[in-house]
Structure formats: structure tokens, C-alpha cells
């Protein structure tokens, strides 16, 4: 079988070369704009705090130090809070994706007579909510205060995730589901053995959304578990460290040396700016490590899940 001729660069027309040059330039600028904030935060977090106050830190630390990370991780509760954050991320993502997929499968079936009404009811919750105080009273009345499950149960069903999964399921060949029913599989077995494996790309996408939301969440800890140190999360502990550093500086009239006079080395003081940069890196690294493994499914799931609305 003859191979199709490959156009060499020297045979390209001037318009093609201009397009390629503009495309490379645009993608290079996009890469720089995307990576620079993170690399700048990394440089600030690895630079001495009193030197960072002067400014001029871009992509590389001017005075390298680990003092900022030492200050953050010396807190006794950080490692336990990291464990709680990881646990809520894994448990919350798995249960939420499973429940959202069951709901999406249900409202995607044409034989379900209430699917249109239920879909509209779900979509309305994206525009209207009960408010903070009613939600707090509800959580208190059902006994979820000071418990781990307050991180999981209220967010089990995400309407946006349900709609993405439903669109993906509606695009599956109906013949596959019919053949499963002919073979004697019930609705749950069809869902478990047929639908979920076929929905792997969109499930990976939704899992990433849910995991990032669970990992970054701290406000629910503040509302429901702020008095329970054993259930505190990494994000909440980092927020408290930053808040304490800001309070110390404000109480000392902006004098960093007086605010952090208890530091082991006065040459390596910490500032709210350096702590904020360090916190950003610490909170981002786990998600960055997971994303490459889900990138293929993430792109495919977003493409196929958005074909039908």
C-alpha cells in the first residue's frame, strides 16, 4: 500500500509558514503565561523571606532556603491534617462519582417517566440554594456536626457532574445495553458491568473535578469541625498559619522582625508573602502529581461528555 507523500517544510507555501510561526509563537506565549505564576510562587517559597520583600523574584530564588517549608511543616497538626485531607479526597471522590453516575444513568433512561422533571429540579439547584444558615441548621439537625462524614455526604451529588455523565451515557450505543438485558442482566448489573466501564473517560474527568474540590475545601471545616483538631484538614491548617502570620505582623505595625522574633534564625524570617507562596506549592503538588495519569481520560471525557446537552 503506497504511503501518502509528506510535505517537507521547504515546500510549504508562505501562508503555511506564517501560520506555523504564529501558532508556535501563540503556544509559547500561552505556555509562559500558564507556567510563570507557578514557577514564580516556587521561587518565592524557596527564597529567604526578608529578601523576597524587596521584590524582583521571578523564576529563580535569589537567596535559596528551606526555612519557609520548615516553618509550615513544623506545626504538629500538619501531617495529621494532610492524612485527613487525603482521606476525604479519596473517599469523597469515589462515593460522589459512584452516586452521580447512578443518578445520571437513571435520568438518562427513556423508560423513566419522571426523568425530565427530575432533571429540571436538579438544574434549578444550580441557580438557587437554601443559603448558608439553612444549610448549617440542616447539618446540625441531622447530626453531622463534628464528624468526618460532613465532608462527604452533603456533596455526594453534584448536579454539574451528573449532567456531564448523563450526556456521555446518552451517547452510548443502545444496542449494548439491550444485549445485556437480553442476557438477563438487571438494571443494577447493567449499570455496574456495562455502563461504568464504558464511562471510564468521563468518570476520570469527574473524579478529577471532585478530588480537586475536596482537596482544596476548607470552609466546611471552619463551619462544622473547627473545634475538632482530629478532623482538621491541610487547607484549614495552612489557612490558620497564614492568618496567624498576618495577625502577628499587623499587631507589630508591619515589623516582620518583631512579629517573628521567636524564629531560630533572624536571617531567615518568614512573612505572609513567603508563607502564602509555600502554602500554594504544598497544596498544589498532590494534584499536579495525579493529573498526568488522568490527562488522557480528562481530554477525552470533556470532549465526548459535551457532545450532547
The helix content is 55-70%
The class by helix and strand makeup works out as mainly alpha
Identify the overall geometry: flat
CATH 2nd-level architecture of the domain at 78-224: Orthogonal Bundle
Q: Give the radius of gyration.
A: 25 Å
Run of helices and strands: HHHHHHHHHHHHHH
CATH topology of the domain at 78-224, which one?
MetI-like fold
Corresponding CATH superfamily of the domain at 78-224: MetI-like
CATH class of the domain at 78-224: Mainly Alpha
**Helix tally?**
14
Strand content: under 5%
End-to-end Cα distance, whole Å, is 42 Å
Overall average residue pLDDT: 82
Low-confidence stretches: 262-267, 305-309
Protein name: Carbohydrate ABC transporter permease
Domain ABC transmembrane type-1: 82-294
Family: Belongs to the binding-protein-dependent transport system permease family.
Organism: Paenibacillus puldeungensis
Describe the structure.
The model is unreliable at 262-267 and 305-309 (pLDDT under 50). The protein has a domain at 78-224: MetI-like fold (Orthogonal Bundle), CATH 1.10.3720.10. The chain has helices at residues 14-45, 49-52, 67-73, 78-108, 115-124, 132-141, 159-170, 174-182, 187-198, 200-216, 219-224, 234-251, 256-259, 272-305. The chain has 14 helices and no strands. The longest helix has 34 residues, at 272-305. It is flat and about 70 Å long. With 309 residues, the protein is mainly α. The relative contact order is 0.13. It is found in: Cell membrane. Residues 82-294 form the ABC transmembrane type-1 domain. The chain crosses the membrane at residues 21-39, 78-105, 117-136, 148-169, 190-212, 275-294. Its main location: membrane. InterPro entries: MetI-like, MetI-like_sf.
Amino acid at each position: 500500500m503506497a504511503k501518502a507523500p509528506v510535505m517537507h517544510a521547504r515546500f510549504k507555501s508562505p501562508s503555511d509558514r506564517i501560520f506555523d510561526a504564529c501558532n508556535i509563537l501563540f503556544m509559547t506565549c500561552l505556555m509562559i503565561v500558564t507556567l510563570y505564576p507557578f514557577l514564580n510562587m516556587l521561587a518565592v517559597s524557596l527564597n529567604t523571606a526578608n529578601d523576597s520583600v524587596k521584590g524582583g523574584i521571578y523564576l529563580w530564588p535569589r537567596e535559596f532556603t528551606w526555612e519557609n517549608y520548615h516553618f509550615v511543616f513544623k506545626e504538629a497538626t500538619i501531617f495529621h491534617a494532610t492524612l485527613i485531607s487525603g482521606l476525604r479526597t479519596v473517599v469523597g471522590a469515589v462515593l460522589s462519582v459512584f452516586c452521580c453516575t447512578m443518578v445520571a444513568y437513571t435520568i438518562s433512561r427513556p423508560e423513566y417517566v419522571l426523568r425530565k422533571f427530575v432533571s429540571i429540579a436538579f438544574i434549578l439547584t444550580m441557580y438557587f440554594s437554601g443559603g448558608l444558615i439553612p444549610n448549617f441548621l440542616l447539618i446540625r439537625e441531622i447530626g453531622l456536626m463534628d464528624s468526618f462524614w460532613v465532608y462527604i455526604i452533603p456533596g455526594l451529588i453534584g448536579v454539574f457532574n451528573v449532567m456531564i455523565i448523563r450526556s456521555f451515557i446518552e451517547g452510548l450505543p443502545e444496542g449494548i445495553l439491550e444485549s445485556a438485558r437480553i442476557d438477563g442482566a438487571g438494571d443494577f448489573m447493567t449499570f455496574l458491568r456495562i455502563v461504568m466501564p464504558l464511562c471510564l473517560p468521563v468518570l476520570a474527568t469527574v473524579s478529577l473535578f471532585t478530588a480537586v474540590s475536596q482537596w482544596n475545601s476548607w470552609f466546611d471545616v471552619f463551619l462544622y469541625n473547627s473545634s475538632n483538631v482530629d478532623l482538621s484538614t491541610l487547607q484549614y491548617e495552612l489557612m490558620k498559619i497564614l492568618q496567624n502570620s498576618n495577625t502577628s505582623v499587623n499587631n507589630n505595625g508591619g515589623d516582620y522582625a518583631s512579629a517573628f522574633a521567636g524564629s531560630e534564625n533572624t536571617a531567615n524570617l518568614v512573612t505572609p508573602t513567603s508563607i502564602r507562596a509555600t502554602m500554594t506549592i504544598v497544596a498544589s503538588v498532590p494534584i499536579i502529581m495525579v493529573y498526568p495519569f488522568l490527562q488522557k481520560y480528562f481530554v477525552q471525557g470533556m470532549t465526548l461528555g459535551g457532545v450532547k446537552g
